């Protein structure tokens, strides 16, 4: 490697170390402020022109908030309406009352796996948060759960959503790799599913069972829990459960204060409205011709912002008609829902600025150039390049797209090997998910974690997904 490449690597190392120090030192600098300070320092040290540095910061923050911010705000309002209508509580009650504590992480993983088919990681997690918080709160009230119930249920969702986002078409990243490597879409989907299932199991419910007792203090901010579970006018913890022969899934005593509830079927429908719209978009883009008018309609309806808006409007009707709440009270709930996510939005924007400066300063290109010179198995090489680029740019999609362009000349198009390379590149893009990834901050702030706790959950889970996905791809390559 050239001296300039080594210099850029050193800058990246120092930047991440500085960010960690600012947040965790006695100064306790706010993560948003720390991100902006480190972003400016990184751009200057890497030699990015001063007149372009501010543009990179604005583009990175604005682009990330454009992709995630509006959806997050709509998701926060949707979650509040569902909790106010009793929808999330009805689903949580159905899960807890009919399932043992040991089965709940598996059910959450299965639900997230389905939701993750059409959704980006951040969007899927936003949709899952009301359910995770409601069920975890009930488990917390029942007692008997080792460690944090929020970690026990959050980790399986993180594992499933991230796996689907990076490894399985029809997500944009894997689809781009399919096109760039001339892989067969159908074969890649089958291979991706075969690789994804054991990966989700091991990185999700299995790891959650191990890590939850080791993070007993993880609990989201009380205001955020109240927003998503409708407990704002209730005590922080409920009375102990009355147990029956049903064990941990028994009905809680004094479980809900007297208030109108919607039927469980409608509750499930409300949660699935944005999921169904995004899934229809995915199917339309896969099976319908580009000139088909139906494809245009379904593609528009499945845009994350539009789908979340539709879900919000459905929940609004459910709240107004199903519970009879006054309009002024509903509007106040929506206003309150945005207060809890304002800080999260700022931090995500700061992460986006950091990502953009790393990309524009040439650090990502330097890492890719160094990795390309390594003499490795093409599947391992694709995984490694995507891993390093995702780490340096903070974007799994950037890692996939760039790695695909680098390794495409090294492989003949089509066949099982090309499909496995798609999966490996996608898996690589998920690993080492840390402070310059928007998803890291979303998980950290949503679950009320410090940096170390977020690293033990988000970073470790996605790295497990990355390594296990690579292992499955290499295992299946024996048959290529």
Please report the distance between the alpha carbons of the first and last residues. Answer: 33 Å
Shape: globular
SSE string:
HHHHHHHHHHHHHHHHHHHHH
Largest sheet: none
Number of strands: 0
Averaging pLDDT over every residue, what do you get?
Answer: 80
Which consecutive residue ranges, at least 5 long each, have pLDDT under 50?
A: 233-258
Helix content: over 70%
Structural class, by secondary structure, is: mainly alpha
> What is the beta-strand fraction?
under 5%
- Helical element count? 21
Radius of gyration: 22 Å
Written account of the structure:
With 480 residues, the protein is an all-alpha fold. It is 74% helix and 0% strand. It contains 21 helices and no strands. Helix 11 packs across helix 12. The longest helix is centred in the N-terminal third of the chain and has 35 residues. It starts with a helix and ends with a helix. About 5% of the residues have low confidence.
Fold blueprint:
Elements: H1 3-24, H2 31-45, H3 50-84, H4 87-98, H5 104-115, H6 121-142, H7 149-167, H8 172-180, H9 185-211, H10 222-229, H11 264-287, H12 293-301, H13 304-322, H14 327-339, H15 342-360, H16 363-372, H17 378-393, H18 396-407, H19 415-428, H20 438-446, H21 451-477
Helix pairs in contact: 1-2, 1-16, 2-3, 2-15, 3-6, 3-13, 3-14, 3-15, 4-6, 4-11, 5-7, 5-9, 6-7, 6-10, 6-20, 7-9, 7-19, 7-21, 8-18, 8-19, 9-19, 9-21, 11-12, 11-13, 15-20, 16-17, 17-18, 17-19, 17-21, 18-19, 19-21, 20-21
């Amino acid at each position: 490697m050239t001296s300039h490449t080594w210099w850029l690597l050193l800058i990246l190392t120092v930047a991440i170390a500085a960010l960690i120090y600012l947040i965790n030192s006695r100064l306790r600098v706010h993560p948003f402020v720390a991100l902006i300070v480190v972003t400016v320092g990184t751009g200057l040290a890497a030699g990015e022109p001063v007149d372009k540095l501010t543009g990179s910061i604005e583009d990175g923050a604005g682009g990330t908030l454009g992709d995630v911010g509006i959806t997050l705000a709509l998701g926060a309002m949707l979650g509040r309406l569902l909790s106010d209508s009793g929808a999330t509580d009805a689903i949580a009650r159905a899960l807890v009352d009919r399932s043992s504590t040991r089965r709940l992480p598996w059910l959450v993983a299965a639900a997230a796996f389905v939701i993750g088919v059409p959704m980006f990681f951040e969007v899927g997690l936003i949709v899952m948060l009301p359910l995770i918080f409601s069920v975890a709160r009930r488990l917390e009230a029942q007692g008997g759960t080792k460690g944090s119930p929020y970690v026990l249920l959050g980790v399986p969702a993180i594992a499933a959503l991230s796996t689907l986002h990076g490894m399985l078409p029809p997500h944009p990243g894997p689809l781009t790799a399919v096109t760039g490597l001339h892989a067969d879409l159908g074969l890649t989907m089958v291979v991706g599913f075969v690789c994804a299932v054991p990966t989700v199991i091991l990185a999700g419910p299995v790891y959650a069972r191990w890590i939850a007792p080791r993070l007993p203090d993880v609990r989201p901010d009380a205001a955020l829990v109240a927003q998503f579970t409708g407990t704002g006018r209730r005590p922080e913890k409920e009375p102990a459960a009355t147990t029956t022969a049903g064990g941990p899934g028994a009905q809680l005593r004094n479980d809900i204060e007297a208030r109108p509830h919607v039927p469980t079927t409608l509750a499930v429908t409300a949660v699935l409205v944005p999921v169904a719209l995004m899934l229809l978009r995915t199917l339309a883009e896969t099976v319908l011709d580009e000139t088909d008018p139906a494809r245009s309609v379904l593609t528009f309806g499945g845009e994350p912002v539009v789908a979340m808006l539709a879900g919000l409007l459905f929940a609004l009707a459910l709240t107004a008609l199903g519970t009879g709440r006054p309009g002024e009270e509903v509007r106040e709930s929506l206003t309150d829902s945005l207060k809890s996510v304002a800080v999260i939005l700022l931090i995500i924007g700061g992460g986006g600025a950091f990502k953009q400066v790393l990309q524009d300063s040439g650090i990502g290109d330097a890492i890719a150039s160094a990795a390309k010179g390594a003499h490795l198995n093409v599947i391992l090489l694709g995984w490694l390049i995507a891993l390093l680029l995702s780490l340096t740019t903070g974007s799994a999609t950037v890692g996939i797209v760039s790695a695909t362009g680098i390794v495409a000349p090294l492989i003949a198009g089509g066949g099982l090997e090309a499909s496995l390379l798609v999966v490996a590149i996608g898996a690589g893009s998920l690993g080492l998910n840390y402070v310059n990834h928007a998803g890291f901050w979303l998980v950290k702030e949503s679950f009320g974690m410090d940096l170390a706790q977020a690293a033990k959950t988000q970073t470790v889970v996605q790295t497990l997904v990355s390594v296990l996905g690579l292992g499955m791809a290499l295992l299946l390559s024996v048959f290529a």
